[in-house]
From TrEMBL:
<protein>
    <recommendedName>
        <fullName>DUF2180 family protein</fullName>
    </recommendedName>
</protein>
<dbReference type="InterPro" id="IPR017211">
    <property type="entry name" value="UCP037465_Znf"/>
</dbReference>
<dbReference type="Pfam" id="PF09947">
    <property type="entry name" value="DUF2180"/>
</dbReference>
Length: 79
């Protein structure tokens, strides 16, 4: 599998990971792996705290995930 972002730019790079949000294959240059909040929903990212309480970023449980750069940017807009 080849990196989606590289192929858009005419490059040929092998995929090293799959974005957990959109499923795109990404190379090392086009992935972000860091602690991210737990989200719910299929594609729309919503922070999940529980019992209808609005949550702050610090209150959200974290886990490392691999995301492509566009999905990571979308996620960061929500926290």
């Amino acid at each position: 599998m080849k990196c989606y972002e590289c192929s858009k730019n005419g490059k040929d790079s092998d995929t090293v990971a799959i974005c957990i949000v959109c499923g795109r294959g990404v190379c090392r240059d086009h992935l972000v792996r860091e602690d991210t909040p737990v989200w719910e929903g299929e594609y729309g990212i919503k922070l999940k705290c529980g019992m209808g309480v609005e949550c702050k970023y610090e209150d959200v449980q974290h886990m490392k995930k691999v995301l492509c750069i566009p999905c990571h940017e979308a996620l960061k807009e929500n926290y």
